[in-house]
Amino acid sequence: MTVLTAVRLVDGVVLSGDEVAVALVAVATLVLVPVLLVLALLHDRRRLHRTPEPDVVPHSTPTWDDLTGLPGRVETQAHVGAAHARARQALGRMAVVVVDVQRLHEVNGRHGRTGGDLLLRSAADRLVAVAGSRAFVARTGGDQFTVVLEEPVTDADLLGLARDLGTAVTGPHGEELRFWVGASVWSPGEPADGEQLLADAELALAQARCARRPGEAPSSAFYEAPLRDRVERRERLRRDLLSAVDDGDIVAVFQPVSDTTTLDVVGLEALARWHRSGLLLEPAQWWDLADEDLVARIGLLVLRAARAVTERSGLPVAVNVASTHLEQPDFVAAVEEAWGEGLWDRLTLEITESDALADVVAAERALSRLVARGVRVAIDDFGTGYNSLARLGSLPLHVLKVDRSFVQRVVTTEGAAVVQAIVSLARAHRLDVVAEGVEEPEQLAALSAMGVPTVQGFLLGRPSRTVPRRAHAAPPLGGRARTAPGHPARDPVLSPAASA
């Protein structure tokens, strides 16, 4: 082996082999170490701003969110802990506000993942703008964000924040951008730590979502000591309801719709009941436990039962539609699968007039596709909402249902005038009329005198699992449909309805 022993440099300077080695190490150190340091810093920076893939780091939590540019859950937990320590030291207040973005699932279904990402970025911008420069804002879940407010924090500040976040603004695709809001507040002397504050705010958020009935705008809730027990009780009931759907304990009952003159049964309305502890519970006792997915499942269950009954009885049947289900991208396909082939002219879908439609265009498109098959559409509780007349022009309608609150007063001069006005409006639009909630013979007589063709209510028949016997063939339908789907006022299905 040949070993380098000396190197001649300029001016006759000669370095030994050992001296050459030392010189090379020095040069390498001066050149390579800075390069390696720069590469390490770039790697750390990328690691800080990258969300780990779940299949690569299965149990890690991102510290920063690439999509929104906001801190993640780990950063949030650390910030809440530090803010709590500062509040304890300064004897000041602090608040944790946890929010969920409404309708992210629908936007993902309608516009794809890219559309959902745009909504989340808009939500992040909205939160930062509303919370203010002093607030800490983070993304802590798929559609969940967390806001931390430090002293000074007043109740007015929190109520104003909740109000602003509950106010709809236009999202990137024209949809309403709203938030559900849950908040917890720490004041000096309280035992809760930062971790408990986060848990309490998430509990309040769960209460806000539970308290909202399907179709209503998102709401807000603030943590209080008894809240945990209430939420836990509701959660047990919700699990029981979910099991009831899985086990077949949500059943359909049917209320007759009758001809006003002959009292013959000319149609049915399918209503949902929870068979629990030997009782049939009306939706008013459990409907607000159902989230949007469960609402859809129950509605389709009732629709399948309605199909079976119309096949046996030959009577047309009405099923109520929850707005949250109607606006889902797969609504038409789900209805087609549940109803099956043919007999579309025996089905009426009812939309509760007071049930808010966030996307009227999508609802009109879905209903029009079904109307093209022969399905009829009814507006339930007509006159009780803020946009009754607007819906006459925006949706493909066949039937107006007079709300029970008007029927109860139809024997008075003022009440008769209201009902007569609704009947005249329906005739002008070539729509059929159904009066619901008829309980007294005098009401039936007054409605008959006004020319209301079909009615339903306890006077004519209560909801029952036994289908009323068909008295004669349903009236022939021409132009706008002449059937009488019936839906009582205080019951949200393909939302369930209560007795009329």
UniProtKB/TrEMBL annotation:
<feature type="domain" description="GGDEF">
    <location>
        <begin position="92"/>
        <end position="224"/>
    </location>
</feature>
<keyword id="KW-0472">Membrane</keyword>
<keyword id="KW-0812">Transmembrane</keyword>
<dbReference type="InterPro" id="IPR029787">
    <property type="entry name" value="Nucleotide_cyclase"/>
</dbReference>
<dbReference type="InterPro" id="IPR000160">
    <property type="entry name" value="GGDEF_dom"/>
</dbReference>
<dbReference type="InterPro" id="IPR035919">
    <property type="entry name" value="EAL_sf"/>
</dbReference>
<dbReference type="Pfam" id="PF00563">
    <property type="entry name" value="EAL"/>
</dbReference>
<keyword id="KW-1133">Transmembrane helix</keyword>
<feature type="region of interest" description="Disordered">
    <location>
        <begin position="468"/>
        <end position="500"/>
    </location>
</feature>
<dbReference type="InterPro" id="IPR050706">
    <property type="entry name" value="Cyclic-di-GMP_PDE-like"/>
</dbReference>
<feature type="transmembrane region" description="Helical">
    <location>
        <begin position="20"/>
        <end position="42"/>
    </location>
</feature>
<dbReference type="Pfam" id="PF00990">
    <property type="entry name" value="GGDEF"/>
</dbReference>
<dbReference type="InterPro" id="IPR043128">
    <property type="entry name" value="Rev_trsase/Diguanyl_cyclase"/>
</dbReference>
<dbReference type="GO" id="GO:0071111">
    <property type="term" value="F:cyclic-guanylate-specific phosphodiesterase activity"/>
</dbReference>
<dbReference type="InterPro" id="IPR001633">
    <property type="entry name" value="EAL_dom"/>
</dbReference>
<protein>
    <submittedName>
        <fullName>Diguanylate cyclase</fullName>
    </submittedName>
</protein>
<feature type="domain" description="EAL">
    <location>
        <begin position="234"/>
        <end position="477"/>
    </location>
</feature>
